Amino acid sequence: MLKDKTLGVRAWFGSGEPWIWMNAGAVAISIAAVVGVVGLIAVRGFAHFWPADVALIDYVDSLGERRMALGEIIESETLPAYQYLEATGKTAEDLAPGQITVERWLVKTGNRRIAPPDFRWVVAHAVTSVTYPEDAVVLERVEWGNAYGYLRAVYEDGKVSSEGTAAWADLAGRIARVAGLREVLRGLERSDLNRINYELNRQRLQRRAIDLRGATDDPATQATLAAIEAAEAALRSEYDEVEQRLRAYQAELRRDSLLLELADGTTETISLAEVVKAWQPNALGVGGKTAHYFQALGAFLTEDPREANTEGGIFPAIFGTVMMVLLMSVLVTPFGVIAAVYLREYARQGPLVRLIRIAVNNLAGVPSIVYGVFGLGFFVYFLGGSLDALFFPEALPSPTFGTPGLLWASLTLALLTLPVVVVSTEEGLTRIPRSLREGSLALGATKAETLFKVILPVASPSILTGVILAVARAAGEVAPLMLVGVVKLAPTLPIDGNFPYVHLERKFMHLGFHIYDVGFQSPNVEAARPLVYATALLLVIIILVLNLTAILLRGRLENRYRGVET
User: Fold this and answer.
1) I need a labelling partner for 251 at 20 to 30 A (CA). Which of 19, 149, 378, 439 fits?
2) Interatomic CA distance for residues 441 and 118, integer angstroms
3) Distance separating alpha carbons of residues 253 and 294, to the nearest angstrom
């Protein structure tokens, strides 16, 4: 009997079925791990935009004084009593008899300008009471983070416009008015002033180019200089007009203010020019909180960052990431395909070609920071400096292309991902039957026609596979980008209304670097932590969308060249 069981187990292992189950289990564990990580990031990140209730906490601080704190209870944790005593310097007499653990709450109290810090720990056993007043107000400000308190009055030009219960309805309308004025100001600054400054700089460079050429006495040059002076005068006149409009709008923006009573009874006057929005979370129902959530999420996706990237949105980082990945894909695909076609279709197979393939495979294992150093030295300083000397001498010593920018970052990442595209394309070319090539040539097609009309279309799924892998790697790279173009905060986008409209020489923001900056360089770690999760999830989503787009296109091409029309 035992011998039969042993033979049965051996036969079972010999059939290979255990390895199938082990592989299936490994895949299931991997999928569960990925789903778990993404779920954790989603919960920690996007839950940040839900309007949390504001608690009024009456407690005794570490000095034995009674305090009132108004804010959001962000999290709670339980510490061993000895750890709490070591961290605070207290003695066992400060704890209840037999108490072995201490619970404490992290409370976001805001009001950093007058009562820093805006996050503080409150020990649960020192809390006397916790209430949730419905009239508690949260103000999101342009600077200094959130403010928490009670709205007591609204002022217009320093005079009371409304107070008491009527102040809240009055405040909503005035915040909407301020938001409209802020949009007008932003439009003037980014459209009119940006255009005027760009044109003034262009006229200055034209004058500088004339000075470098010399011979300014001939009539044609004098006419050009006169035209430049006239254009500059018109631009300065337009600038003065726009500046007057800006000052008028700024005065209107500073007209209104509010009086906020804090938890300790003191009051603070806040200009509505500093307020982005206001809400009463304890008075909101489920519908109101849902509407607020999507509004906050939309602002996060469409607005510019504020407060050292710990407030506001991340639209410039989204734009920069997508644009860089698309430009990198456009650059790496033809070079990778050409290299693979040469190695497989034209090069004589021998030791040299094998050596080239080994070199390509080894390039895939080079650390990304090495590519960044190479990109900085070769692309930025050598190529960029040469372009400046040849085409932009009037701008020197200020570099145009001889400085990190979007183009050099895309080229560096294209070089980094080139081995992936080469190997994937060459594998696809290897799988194409020789009979397909010979049949095309037998029908009278040239080798070039065979390549472009037969071989490359059939190999296009493999080419897209290489592009998918390249996008997945390039979108998450940070180290090389820190050297060749990415910055903490870019003043303008690489695309605007000024000729040539696409400015590849400009620096840009990137989601990966934004995560690094907010997570490790932020002066306010607690405020930045939810944004790190939200930005990380958004980066994963963008990579998935780009990859799924390429995968769907690859699937259509595979079906087409299998004879299935879709």
Assistant:
1) 149
2) 75
3) 26
